[in-house]
Amino acid sequence: xxxxxxxxxxxxxxMVLGALSALLExxxxxxxxxxxxxGREALSAVGRLTPDVLVTDIEMPLMTGLELAAxxxxxxxxxxxxILTTFARSGYLRRALDAGARxxxxxxxxxxxxxxxxxxxxxGLRVIDPALAAEAWNAELDPLTERERQILQRAGDGRSSxxxxxxxxxxxxxxxxxxxxxxxxxxxSNRIDAARIARTKGWL
Amino acid sequence: xxxxxxxxxxxxxxMVLGALSALLExxxxxxxxxxxxxGREALSAVGRLTPDVLVTDIEMPLMTGLELAAxxxxxxxxxxxxILTTFARSGYLRRALDAGARxxxxxxxxxxxxxxxxxxxxxGLRVIDPALAAEAWNAELDPLTERERQILQRAGDGRSSxxxxxxxxxxxxxxxxxxxxxxxxxxxSNRIDAARIARTKGWL
DNA sequence: AATCGGATGTGACAGTTGTCATGCAGAGGT
DNA sequence: ACCTCTGCATGACAACTGTCACATCCGATT
Lengths: 204, 204
Hints:
The structure is a homodimer.
Chain A: E1 5-10, H1 14-25, E2 30-36, H2 39-49, E3 53-56, H3 65-75, E4 80-85, H4 90-98, E5 103-106, H5 112-122, E6 127-128, H6 130-137, H7 146-156, H8 161-168, H9 172-186, H10 191-200
Parallel strand pairs in A: 1-2, 1-3, 3-4, 4-5, 5-6
Helix pairs in contact in A: 2-3, 4-6, 7-9, 7-10, 8-9, 9-10
Chain A binds a DNA duplex through helix 9.
């Protein structure tokens, strides 16, 4: 028998981390050598242990999974990264691939796919959630400008045009113009709807 | 040796569900007899299998964990329910306890606490996340009426007063009145802000 | 040099939202 | 019966929001 695949796991919810670890440890050909609670911890573990595969969540404190992937791409190119996340957002997938990730897996896929994905990625293959890959193929690009994004974020948090204008040193009319533009671009019916849509696409 | 504790698990993210199941199955005195993907499935599984303990997430499609707990309290009072969730919201905890839950556990607690909590609850004890319990002690009560909650939910999704009025068979003025009330009660500056505040407290 | 897109601004207008006073009907408590 | 609370409603007014037409400035592309 060949040596097991050595895996580092990164996930900020301790119980989910422990559970995923238990799940992978059930596989005789896979060995979880470190459980990291955030991206920073994972980065240092990878440096010390040089695993074969890294499985990481995206939204974590200190360092996100996407930042981690981007970092490892240059510092440890031999380590193959799988992003494991709740979010089926084409914007995230795009960023993950740009960061050199070899896999993008959703937490609502069956548990068996995790080990299988680790094996595939270890063999040098790519594993992209099929539904999301299809969607990303013809997904619109982010139509928002940087200003529109800034303003939409704040509007989505319940700030008024006046407050946003003050905060960003703009006139109130300008803020309303940007929001109107964003609403039109996203086909939304008001600022809140627009913020919601942008969030689900991973553009905020 | 006594018979193992029979557990039904409910969690909508399949991979997390499988992983938690694997984690509990590692314990010799615990046996996971059903994995449910939502509250409705869990409800029927409990009816068929009458487990000792139910471990359930809150936010799930078709039926939330809180609704499930409330339902089981009367239909199957012998089944002890543990809520396992990401959200440290005192409003959720309060609703969970009102719904007859015996445990409220956060997903960012160590993995070992899950099995331990199952055992304690099975022995008839309560298990409440200590930090959250302390916070809930002096947390404000939910000031919203049922109508206000319904309307605030929809407003927070970007629906206009008119749309909400049509959907709920109310007049537009009434919808605005309820929103105005909710905004005042929550000390918010507009409907969006109000929805945001209510959500972070677990009142939506 | 000419053009274009992005960032910024103004002014005007219509539509939506937030507030308040006030009213009415039904459910419960005294 | 009487009172009070809650849910629902209306109307009026002020404030906020969304849209549009138009204008200026700047940097990048052609």
